[in-house]
Write a structure and sequence with these properties.
The protein is mostly helical and about 500 residues long. The chain is built from 21 helices and 6 strands.
Length: about 500
């Protein structure tokens, strides 16, 4: 058998090429995709402002070594930090994903595509502030190409659409959690590809950078589950976005890629981590993930379960005065809803509670609605909630599961009915789509803007908060802004 020549390089993996071709193409998205991307940008930055209130999050931010801020560096919204783009990507990504309150895409894996904004904002602001300057990277001879003009917010929104699409489509049918891997790796994949393109990378450089992003493998899910659940899950997105920017910069400075990072026998990603299962794209890449994104509006509860909260809330007035008489609570759910049945008492963390179908349904029956405060220990100790959870009877409704799998519907239906001792019962209340679903966009958008303005007021005065929200209500003016001017709005 003939050996390949010493300098032989195989053709890159097909998936690397398909992702790179999509990223390298000029964006040609519909107006709805750009408009929804702007809503995602506002919502994610609002979530970041809320996270800045928490010492556990804010203590992680700023230069790794005190006093090493960077002139004309990337800014971290809500702070006065100016940092290198790798560190800024960590800080922004950390704040964006800390509260689990940012948007979701509906997929086989739990996915927050907005986690990618850490990389995109850091790179776009750094480039836009340094228009006309070249940057020599350590240990390499090739400088980065100097941007000839500042990136506009429209450029940023197009990049956001691309990261959402890569992240969401890869999450559709590739199950990383089943292999014990944390799907936050998809943040690193999507962010690496698009950050490389924003930094001026060619299609081949995008392929090389993507190969390194896959070579990094994945973090384990250990830190998301008791008894090892720790705050790392809060900064996981920041870790992924900062690594993405670092990999993009290394490739642009001359680091070669590994063309068969996915498919190499024995040593590739698929054989090593997926027991040989191939990675696939469920469909061609466009903008549908963005157009169908699911916002978390009223609380950070698991999106698959928010319709159960709403259905229970509609029964609150009937049930709350008769809690002692409740015999059982029937919950009809879709197949994904059955993954969230842990109703052990007590649920140990807010994260456990926001992902527990019985607990969330009990909150809706007792309080009529759910806010993030309802996930804290003080509320969880309410004996009425434990009593109701013990009487919950969740079961799958095949029709709900069929509509959940239907790509034209992708409903998240839940139905709740309460039965009392003595034979009486409430009506069966069904809610098909949560408030943040694209089918309820007209109803949800005003509330999404209210959520963002309330979040901004935790960091800015009332006038500044109103002005920022108003900016997002005027798409033409927003999209024409250079990114560095846009980021000035977010400096306290």
């Amino acid at each position: 058998m003939n050996s390949p020549p010493p300098n032989f390089r195989p053709a890159p993996d097909a998936l690397l090429l398909e992702l790179a071709d999509y990223v390298a193409r000029p964006p040609a998205f519909c107006d709805a995709a750009y408009r929804t991307a702007s809503h995602c940008l506002l919502d994610t930055l609002g979530c970041a402002m809320l996270a800045l209130q928490l010492p556990a999050c804010s203590r992680l931010l700023g230069p790794v070594v005190p006093g090493t801020t960077m002139p004309l560096g990337a800014r971290v919204p809500g702070t006065d930090y100016e940092l290198d783009p790798v560190t800024a990507a960590f800080d922004i990504g950390c704040c964006a994903g800390w509260l689990d309150f940012n948007d979701n895409c509906l997929s086989a894996e739990r996915a927050h595509p907005s986690d990618n904004l850490g990389a995109l904002l850091a790179v776009a602001d750094w480039l836009s502030r340094n228009t006309g300057h070249t940057h020599q990277l350590r240990a390499f001879d090739s400088p980065l190409p100097a941007p000839r003009a500042a990136l506009s917010v429209r450029d940023l929104l197009g990049a956001i659409v691309k990261t959402y699409e890569i992240h969401g489509v890869l999450a559709q049918e590739n199950s990383f959690s089943s292999a014990g891997l944390d799907p936050v790796l998809l943040v690193r994949i999507a962010s690496t590809a698009v950050a490389t393109q924003l930094l001026g990378g060619t299609r081949d450089q995008i392929v090389d950078a993507l190969s390194h992003a896959w070579l990094d493998g994945s973090a384990l899910r250990t830190y998301r589950h008791a008894p090892n659940a720790v705050s790392r899950q809060g900064w996981a997105a920041g870790d992924a976005t900062s690594r993405a920017v670092l990999l993009a910069l290394r490739v642009l400075a001359g680091e070669p890629g590994c063309p068969t990072a996915l498919t190499a026998p024995k040593w590739g990603f698929q054989d090593t981590l997926l027991q040989g299962r191939p990675l696939t794209l469920s469909r061609s890449l466009g903008s549908s993930v963005m157009e169908q994104i699911l916002f978390k509006i009223s609380s950070s509860a698991e999106p698959n379960l928010q319709t159960a909260v709403e259905a229970a809330g509609k029964l609150h007035a009937q049930v709350a005065p008769r809690l002692a008489e409740v015999e059982r609570v029937e919950i009809a759910t879709h197949e994904a809803g059955l993954r969230f049945l842990d109703s052990s008492d007590p649920l140990t963390r807010p994260g456990d509670r926001r992902h527990c179908l019985p607990y969330l349904t009990a909150l809706g029956l007792v309080f009529g609605r759910v806010t993030d405060g309802h996930f804290e220990d003080a509320v969880a100790r309410d004996p009425r909630l434990a009593a109701l959870c013990a009487r919950m009877h969740p079961h799958e409704d095949p029709g709900f599961s069929q509509d959940y799998r239907d790509p034209d519907k992708h409903s998240l239906a839940n139905a709740v009915q309460v039965f009392f001792r003595g034979g009486t019962h409430t009506e069966r209340v069904t809610v098909e789509y949560p408030l943040g679903h694209h089918r309820r966009r007209a109803e949800g958008l005003p509330l999404l803007f209210d959520k963002a303005e309330a979040a901004l007021r935790t960091r800015f005065d009332e006038d500044r908060a109103e002005e920022i929200v108003d900016l997002f209500d005027h798409p033409a003016g927003l999209e024409s802004l250079p990114v560095d001017k846009f980021m000035e709005w977010w400096v306290p």
